[in-house]
Design a protein that fits this description.
two-stranded antiparallel ribbon; 8-stranded antiparallel sheet; 5 helices; alpha+beta
């Protein structure tokens, strides 16, 4: 059972997320008073800040099992360097297939100079909305990795969430090793919304 201070932090996170969704809708020209009220009510009283996602690939091993895993993902409505941090495991739209999603680790954001190990490639600096994501599997050669080393920088706006918990199997599961800032911010969401039994059920399906 989450403590009262944890619940306060959780509700604060819900309010922040609700306003971020409303602001995003406004900027996209989809804002209306009715939508704003409905979003507030739905998020604060019935909505969750997380969702489950099943991944079946080796790119993120050993962080996520070689046969994949079931992930608890925190929703992020407004992605910038104050919401996601270098070192976080994020879920993002596949840059080559927009109807699919990838899970990769955020390695660099705007202002970072990217230097290739191949001398033929010119160094470049990531632009304001750009980030660099990589897989964790060191056994996969860079040229064979499906990450920024092959498809280049991606837009920060393509990030839809941060992985906060991973179930590799029934006995091997736990919080995701993200940046220290993210793990602190995500702790109340984990305390309130983590349901290991639901994860196990989803993992077996």
């Amino acid at each position: 059972m989450a403590s009262f201070p944890t619940w306060i932090r959780y509700v604060t996170s819900k309010i922040d997320y609700t306003f971020a969704v409303a602001q995003k809708s406004y900027l996209q020209g989809q804002f209306s008073e009715a939508l704003s009220i409905n979003t507030h009510v739905r998020t604060l009283f019935t909505g969750k800040l997380t969702f489950l996602h099943r991944i079946k690939e080796e790119e993120m091993a050993p962080t996520i099992g070689t046969e994949g895993g079931t992930l608890l993902v925190r929703k992020i409505a407004d992605t910038d360097v104050t919401k996601v941090y270098i070192g976080d495991v994020v879920m993002l739209k596949d840059p080559t297939m927009s109807d699919k999603y990838l899970v990769r680790r955020l390695a660099a954001t705007k202002g970072y100079e990217m230097v290739s190990t191949d001398e033929k490639d010119e160094p470049f600096v990531l632009e304001n909305d750009e980030c660099w994501v990589v897989s964790d599997n060191a056994e996969v050669k860079p040229k064979d990795s499906y990450d920024s080393r092959t498809f280049g920088p991606v837009s920060m706006t393509d990030i839809v969430g941060r992985v906060i918990y991973c179930m590799r199997n029934d006995v091997d599961h736990g919080p995701m090793n993200n940046s220290r800032s993210s793990m602190k911010e995500d702790s109340p969401i984990l305390a309130v919304e983590l349901d290991v039994d639901e994860l196990k059920k989803n993992h077996k399906e």
